[in-house]
Design brief:
This protein has 104 residues and is mostly helical. The protein is built from seven helices and no strands. The chain has one domain: DnaA protein, C-terminal DNA-binding domain (Chromosomal Replication Initiator Protein Dnaa, Chain: A, Orthogonal Bundle), CATH 1.10.1750. It is globular, with a radius of gyration of 13 Å. Helix content is 75%, strand content 0%.
């Protein structure tokens, strides 16, 4: 079930940031791609997906990160949410979209 949420968040993040999955999971450190990855990690943390599982899911997509990167991403987005209420609106819209499980 956590994988389904991860996949949904990947699609949502790609749509919101107007990037493709290949860019999202690339090794690039370009601002737009790294922000999108951080946003994805933050969404997963809000869904209570354990950090180690987030690492595993990212790794399956070809993006290997350490635990400290997961923690940094969550902290970074949390600070942006506090500073910019538009982030909060986007996050809430993503979290409130139904998944296939919700519709069954």
């Amino acid at each position: 079930m956590k994988t389904e949420y991860f996949d949904k968040y990947v699609d949502d993040v790609c749509r919101i940031f107007r990037i493709n999955k290949r860019t999202l999971f690339s090794k690039t450190k370009k601002h737009h791609a790294s922000r999108a990855r951080q946003f994805l990690i933050y969404l997963c943390s809000l869904r209570k997906i354990p950090n180690v599982y987030i690492q595993t899911l990212l790794s399956k997509e070809g993006y290997d990160v350490g635990h400290s990167t997961i923690i940094y991403s969550i902290k970074n987005v949390r600070e942006r949410v506090k500073a910019d209420k538009d982030y909060d609106k986007i996050i809430n819209s993503v979290l409130n979209m139904p998944t296939t499980d919700d519709l069954a």
